[in-house]
Amino acid sequence: MSTTITFADLGLADPLMRAIADAGYTIPTPIQAQAIPRVLAGGDLLAAAQTGTGKTAGFTLPILHMLLAKPLEVRKAGRPRVLILTPTRELTAQVEESVKTYGCHTKISSMVIFGGVNINPQISALRKPIDILVATPGRLLDHCQQRTVNLSGIEILVLDEADRMLDMGFIRDIRKILALMPRQRQNLLFSATFSDEIRELSKSVLSNATEVSVAARNTTAERVDQTVYLVDQAHKRDILSHIISESGWHQVLVFTRTKHGANRLAEKLVKDGLSASAIHGNKSQAARTRALDDFKKGKVAVLVATDIAARGLDIDQLPQVVNFELPNIPEDYVHRIGRTGRAGAAGSAISLVDSSEIKYLKAIERIIKKTIPQLPAPTGWTASPPSPHGADDEARAEGRRDGQRRPQQRSARPGGAVRSGTGTGARTSTRTGAPSGSTPRSATGDQANRPRRPALFNK
Ligand code: AMP
User: Fold this and answer.
1) SS3 call for 153
2) How far is the centre of ligand 1, averaged over its atoms, from the C-alpha of 272 (Å)?
3) In angstroms, rounded to a whole number, what is the distance separating the alpha carbons of residues 166 and 433?
4) Which fold has domain 224-457?
5) I need a labelling partner for 126 at 20 to 30 A (CA). Which of 56, 78, 96, 360 fits?
6) Helices (H), ranges, 275-317
């Protein structure tokens, strides 16, 4: 489908067009251009799209349009017409916010329910008629058992971030929920990846579904300035502190592979005088919300997160993402960098990669179908010998095993820098300040191939 399609071409109702204009959107994103006409046509949909592509409006807008086109004569308390299931509390809240934003000129009502908070205010709120219910599976089932929610009127079901729901073990709950809904309904399944499990789920949920897919991985990758720094594990924490303070970043999301790693890193950054906090699944909902709010308001400059905790976080125009460790699931990299460079905003993602993580880097480059420019570690931080354990330290600390052989491809350059595969370029001045003590970096540099200078070294 052409990307020059306009919102007017989609034939959405007037109040929705006004909300779109209020939001400042000029043209539909590719997933919206593909999904909206198909949802309006009434069939089931299987969509490959991830956070950051505009997928939420891709299903919310046509759903609102259809509810407006077919108003109910009698709306009943606790009996929604649309159910949107999402994996996390944060995502649930964000999706419902989108429903409210796009439905602000309509009388369509929506509500969010998720666990980890007192159920009673939700029960009170469910005594009013609601059109759209956005929920996490577990708490929704609690309500169904208490008969405070009745799913017999569901006309449209959305499974948002279905791959995440499966990863998080929600399949049984989803199946129980499916059994409580009428068979005759429209089903929309959104997933960043199409694993065998997703295919299996879609077979049992969808019928005659149209499949749409946006080049989410590449699209995201194109918008984000990505750089790999080849560094030793033992130096990562110092390098990160140094980079953050030198470059004056005020909002950076840092990913670690483990919860303990996230805590330790946040503590270390605080010791180094930076404002940092960690967000992960072991923290209470209140602590997570507080950390996220402080980060959004700019009170905390560095948020250290694990993949699970960061899922669904929608932080507008996040300029910087750092992979303190590469994820061992390549799709997680795409999710991580999808936090930046949203909807046209420029973003930059840097990854601190130790020799033991090269295998993860290769897997990531295979799925994003591009080579990420590599640079040696910022000058002054590469002289010490490599860590005897490398990046697996964190995993070991949490009792995980990694039986894979460590790659042997390091080729240390004078000064300890690791030679990159793409040419290191002539980085004549950096804001790291320390003298390099290494051979000139232009020795193998080639202007044409030179990786783009990462944002962190720009004023
Ligand atoms: P999502 O992938 O649904 O999480 O959306 C990512 C971001 O894109 C959100 O902040 C939306 O407000 C924004 N967005 C959605 N659709 C558009 C559009 N057509 N033009 C510009 N921004 C959009």
Assistant:
1) helix
2) 36
3) 47
4) Rossmann fold (3.40.50)
5) 56
6) 285-297, 307-310
Residue ranges of the domains in the chain? Answer: 7-213, 224-457
Decide if 7-213 and 224-457 have a common fold. yes
Atom of ligand 1 nearest to the CA of 53: 2
Ligand 1 and 223: CB distance under 6 A: no
Chain centroid, CA 199 distance in Å: 21
d(CA 359, CA 390): 13
Q: Candidates 3.60.150.10, 3.40.50.720, 2.40.320.10, 3.40.50.300; correct CATH number of 7-213?
A: 3.40.50.300
Q: Which helix (H) or strand (E) holds 442?
A: none
Compute φ and ψ for 241, nearest 5 degrees.
-55, -45
Q: Which atom of ligand 1 is nearest to the CA of 55?
A: 3
The Å distance, Cα 58 to ligand 1 centre, comes to 9
Q: What single letter denotes the amino acid at residue 346?
A: A
The four Cα atoms 50, 53, 57, 59 give a dihedral, to 10 degrees, of -40
Q: Would the CB of 57 count as within 6 Å of ligand 1?
A: yes
Contact between 325 and 256 (Cβ < 8 Å): yes
